[in-house]
Amino acid sequence: MNGKFCVSITNCHKNPDAITVGFVVAGAALGSEKDTTVFLSTDAVWAAVKGEAEKISIGEPFKPLKELISTFVENGGKILACTPCLKTRGITEDMLIEGVIPAGGAVLVELLEQGTPCITY
């Protein structure tokens, strides 16, 4: 194993459970000392936009999405947002929260090619 872990998330507003659980698992991977990357695509790129994560909270026992994302980034997690998915939705780089990096699918492919395990929500 390469010590890395990837969580690919495709939902945000359309399925708040998926993005919440995706970031819970990403946080758990960081806690297990894995170099963890979250790849946001399709609807999930909205979570990378300033002010949007605050709108997502599925309730106890889960923490609000904003808190999950902040903790993930503060602990060294990486968040990539699909560049074409951002463009399709009119989201520009200046609209993104700190720590989010626009990236194409080739970055995800490279991670997977290195043998990085990946789960999708």
Structure description:
This protein is α/β, with parallel strands linked by helices. The protein has one domain (4-120): DsrEFH-like (Hypothetical Protein Ychn, Chain: A). Helix content is 34%, strand content 20%. The protein is built from four helices and five strands. It has a five-stranded parallel β-sheet. β2 (35-40), α2 (65-74) and β3 (78-82) form a beta-alpha-beta unit. α1 packs parallel to α2 (65-74). The longest helix has 16 residues, at 16-31. The two termini are 22 Å apart. The relative contact order is 0.25.
Distance between the termini: 22 Å
Number of DSSP helices?
Answer: 4
Q: Supply the CATH superfamily name.
A: DsrEFH-like
CATH topology: Hypothetical Protein Ychn, Chain: A
Radius of gyration: 13 Å
Could you name the ranges where pLDDT drops below 50 across 5 or more consecutive residues?
none
Quaternary organisation of the protein chains: single chain
Task: Specify the CATH architecture.
Answer: 3-Layer(aba) Sandwich
Shape: globular
Overall tally of structural domains: 1
Report the strand count. 5
Main β-sheet, in a few words?
5 strands, parallel
CATH class category: Alpha Beta
Widest sheet: strand ordering = 4-3-2-1-5
The averaged pLDDT comes out at 96
The percent range for helix content is 25-40%
- Name the helix and strand elements from N-terminus to C-terminus, one letter apiece: EHEHEHEHE
**Strand content of the residues, in percent?**
15-25%
Structural class: alpha/beta
